Task: inverse folding
């Protein structure tokens, strides 16, 4: 585990389509650095530990992910958030958070094509691909 008292926390955002390797990369970074990994999918797990997507909960799970990220950053803990973030506005709360906490921000894009572990239908992935926005220059 990294010693967080001597280094400034960081916020890393990992974006990409379902099956691009976001969660795997986030896990690897967190194992290496001691950062906390957050993603909305973590909050869609039932009492038995099974992933259960519920579109009605999306707003709430994203808000919870943002709240937990903010809380960790406020304690000096580095955080890695993985999400599709297909449109820039979806990252805005985190961009603002990095500025508010004055922590370095890193944005990584995943472009792999692996098995989609959450069963997102191909038509939904195609819709995400069509609305994908490139990062503004200041973040790339």
Result:
């Amino acid at each position: 585990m990294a010693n967080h008292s001597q280094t400034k926390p960081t916020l890393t955002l990992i974006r990409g389509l379902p099956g691009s390797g976001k969660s795997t990369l986030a896990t690897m970074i967190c194992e290496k650095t001691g950062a906390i990994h957050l993603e909305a999918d973590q909050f869609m797990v039932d009492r038995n530990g099974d992933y259960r997507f519920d579109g009605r909960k999306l707003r709430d799970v994203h808000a919870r992910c943002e709240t937990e990220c903010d809380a960790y950053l406020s304690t000096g803990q580095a955080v890695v958030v993985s999400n599709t973030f297909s449109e820039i506005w979806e990252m805005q709360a985190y961009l603002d958070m990095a500025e508010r906490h004055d922590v370095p921000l890193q944005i990584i894009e995943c472009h792999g094509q692996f098995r989609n572990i959450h069963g997102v239908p191909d038509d939904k992935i195609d819709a995400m691909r069509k609305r994908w926005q490139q990062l503004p220059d200041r973040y790339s």
Remarks:
- Helices lie at 22-33, 58-74, 92-101, 122-130.
- The chain has a mean pLDDT of 85.
- The two ends are 29 Å apart (CA to CA).
- The chain has one domain: 14-139.
